[in-house]
Write a structure and sequence with these properties.
Blueprint: E1 11-12, E2 18-19, E3 31-32, E4 38-39, H1 51-64, H2 69-74, H3 81-92, H4 103-116, H5 120-124, H6 132-141, H7 147-152, H8 179-192, H9 197-201, H10 209-220, H11 231-244, H12 248-253, H13 260-271, H14 275-279
Helix pairs in contact: 1-3, 8-10
């Protein structure tokens, strides 16, 4: 489950139910796919909600109001207050939207998460029609991989919508890479080669070896390409992930011009949701690019080829 952001307060509803400042992984939440349309993930398979329960839940919330989850749960046999709340805010609430995510909404999620941490309940209040669970899923599956690029393009005015919500939240200091630093980093890698990140980092004030490595491999490497993803690349990512797990560095080595971050983002924002469908279309030869030696990731799916 997702944990609360450090320092985020625990909140209670008027009838004493404890609600986290963050959000747990919600089986009744709504995931944002690549096309931006919210799609409901699998519901509670042990005890799925019925249409009659949904109708009663909506009626009870209308009668008692939001926050009275203990009172509501008493009239829904077998349901806990937390389940009632999660079902309502993630699925039944009539104000929820199912349309595509907008660029402005994505920008607000990134800006809010930057200032508030994973306080998705608070972030959702800033996005009319979006529940905390769908905001959480949008962040974890799509936006966290684009965070750095989006934050770099933001100005202080892009945080104005937060108002008093972020008044007491500590502001995270970020020092963006300058053009001079980028030029020096490229020059040092040319001179010393990739892999000497501790030595390279010594030439920068306040830059860790990992930051230097990530900056170069994901942004500055002249071999990187920004062209549209091809079907062949997508099939290779799915095939590699089924054998390697989430070893993005190993995958990027087999996809010319694609960085670790680009491969990771492509997987989580597009391919993860249709991986099973793509795997069923692959043949033994589609895994040849992984040779000569690729060990199966621990716990990763093992798929038998037709032969």
């Amino acid at each position: 489950p997702f944990s609360r952001a450090p320092g985020a307060p625990r909140r209670k509803t008027p009838d004493g139910d404890d609600l986290m400042g963050g959000v747990q992984q919600d089986p009744t939440g709504v995931m944002g796919g690549d096309d931006g349309v919210g799609q409901p993930p699998p519901q509670d398979l042990k005890n799925p909600w019925t249409l009659e329960e949904d109708a009663l839940l909506a009626k009870l919330v209308e009668e008692h109001g939001l926050g009275k989850w203990t009172m509501v749960a008493k009239q829904l046999p077998g349901r806990m207050p937390k389940q009632c709340r999660a079902r309502y805010v993630g699925k039944v609430d009539p104000t929820l939207r199912r349309d595509k995510w907008t660029d402005e909404e994505d920008k607000r999620i990134v800006a809010a998460q930057h200032r508030l941490g994973n306080r998705f309940a608070d972030i959702a209040k800033l996005l009319p029609g979006r529940s905390e669970s769908i905001v959480s899923h949008r962040w974890h599956l799509v936006l966290q991989w684009r965070r750095d690029d989006m934050l770099q393009a933001m100005g202080e005015h892009d945080y104005d919508f937060l108002g008093d919500v972020a008044k007491d939240a500590p502001k995270k200091e970020r020092r963006e890479w300058s053009l001079e630093e980028d030029a020096l980093l490229v020059k040092l890698v040319e001179e010393m080669g990739e892999g000497n990140w501790p030595t390279i980092a010594q030439h920068f004030e306040g830059r860790q070896p990992k930051r230097c490595r990530d900056r170069y491999l994901n942004k500055l490497d002249p071999s990187l390409t920004s062209t549209a993803w091809t079907e062949d690349e997508d099939r290779k990512i799915v095939a590699a992930q089924s054998r390697l797990g989430n070893r993005w560095q190993e995958m990027s080595k087999r996809l010319q011009g694609r960085s670790e971050r680009a491969v990771k983002e492509r997987w989580f924002s597009v391919l993860q949701h249709k991986a099973d469908e793509v795997l069923h279309t692959l043949t033994a030869s589609d895994f040849d690019f992984l040779l000569p030696s690729v060990s199966l990731a621990h716990g990763g799916p093992r798929r038998k080829t037709p032969d």
